[in-house]
Amino acid sequence: MTAIKNAVLVMRDHFIPEAMLLIEDGKIVDFGEMRHKEIPEGCDVIDAKGLYVGPGFVDIHTHAGGKDLFRENPSRAAQVHLSHGTTTLFPALYFNMTTAEYLEEIELIRNTMKTPEGINIGGLYMEGPYLNPKFGAERESNPWTGPVDRKNYGPIVDAAWDIAHVWALAPERENILEFVEAVREKNPNAVFSVAHSEAAPNEIEALMPYGLRIGTHHTNATGDRVKYPECRGVCVDETVNYNREIYAEMICDSRGIHVDPYMLRLVRRMKGDDRVILISDAYTSDAPIPKGYEGVDDILFDYAEEIAGTKLTLDVACRNMIKHTGASLVDVFKFASYNPSRAVGLYDRGEIAVGKRADLVITDHKMNVNLVMIKGIRYELSALR
User: Using CA atoms, how far apart are residues 299 and 355, in angstroms rounded to an integer?
Assistant: First the structure.
C-alpha cells in the first residue's frame, strides 16, 4: 500500500487541502483530510509537501512527443508525454498515409502498448482517412480524396477496431455513413469526431446517433457555409458550440494562435466546463517559422507556411489555459483529465475517487510536474526526460 500525505487534492469541483490518499493494487482506496484519516503502518509514504495531487492527464490527440513522431518512435514519444504528467494518450494517425502505411503504424503502436515504455499509450486517435481534402497540413499529399471504398478502409478498420477509440471524419464526404457503420459493426462503442470539415449542421447532427461526440481541434481546419455574401455562415464550429453532447477539443498555445484567447473564453461560456477538452496536437516539423510569427516557440508550420501542430504537452496547455481564460487548477484538471476520459469512455480514470485507477500527477500552482504515477507505480521524471 502507498500513501500520499500533505497534499492538496484536486477534485472535480473543489480542493481538499492538507489531505492524504491511499493506493492499493493500482487503485485509489481512500482519501481525505489528514486530521480525519490515519496512514496504515507499513505504507510506502510519499510526502507531497503541500503540492497539488490531481488525476493524470489524458491526451486523446497527439502526433509526437518532443522530437519524435509516434509513427517513427512511439516509445520515446510516449515517455516524453509521461514525464509531463500524461498518464493516458492516444497517438493520432494522420490522413496522409496509404492503407498499407496505416496498417504498419497500427501494428507498431499495438506492439508498443505491450511494452513498459508504452505504458501510457491507451489506444489510437484516427485522424482520417476520410477528411475534407481542402483542410489540414500536408493536404497536398492526401491519398484519400476518392470515393469512400471498403476495399481501402476495410483493412484499416479490421486492424485497429479494438484500440482505435476515436475516428475523425468529415460528415460531408459522400457515403460517409457506410464507413461509420463499418466501424460500428466492429466496435459499437467507437467515438466519432467532426474534423477537417465544412459540413453543415444537419450533416454533423445526422451522425450524432452513431457516436459523433467530439469536435477535433475546435475552430481549426473548419470551413464556413455562406449562403449570402454579406452574412456569416453556419458550419462546424457553430454546430459544435450549439450541441451540448459534443465535446470541443482545444489547442491552447502560449500566444493564442490556434485559438484566440477571446474565443477560448467564449467557448467555455457556451459549452460549459464539462465539455471542453485540452489536447496537445503535438507534431514535428523542420519548416522555418514564417514572417510575422517570429518568437513563436510552441507551434509548428509546414513548408506552405501554414500551422502544423504544436510542441505542447498538456501541463503546458493547462498553464496557457489558466493564463488566457482565468481558469483555476480545478478547471484545467477537468479539461485535461476528467473530460477527455469521459468523452472516449475511459470511466476508470480521470478523477480522484475510490476505485479509480491511481493515475496521478503532483504539480505546483504553475502546473510544473514533480511526480507522476500510473496504477500507483511511480515514474522517475529524470529517467523519462
Answer: 38
CA atoms lying within 13 Å on the CB side of residue 38: 3
Q: Name the 3-class secondary structure at 166.
A: strand
Going by C-alpha positions, the residue among 309, 304, 310, 329 that lies closest to residue 319 is 329
pTM for the whole structure: 0.95
- Measured in degrees and rounded to the nearest 5, phi and psi for residue 74 equal -65, -30
* Torsion angle in degrees (nearest 10) through CA of 321, 326, 329, 333: -40
**Mean pLDDT estimate for the chain:** 93
Residues 6+ apart with CB under 8 A from 35: 18
365-385 average pLDDT score = 87
User: What pLDDT is stored for residue 384 in this prediction?
Assistant: 64
Cβ atoms of 21 and 2 within 8 Å: the answer is no
SS3 content of the chain, % helix, strand, coil (to 5): 30, 25, 45
d(C-alpha 15, C-alpha 252), whole Å: 24
Question: Residue 207: pLDDT above 70?
Answer: yes
Which of 38, 128, 82, 96 minimizes the C-alpha distance to 378? Answer: 82
Lowest mean pLDDT of 31-40, 58-67, 74-83, name the range: 31-40
| Per-residue DSSP letter, 356 | S
C-alpha cell at 351: 478523477
Q: Band of the pLDDT at 202, cuts 50, 70, 90?
A: very high
Distance CA 34, CA 198 (A): 53
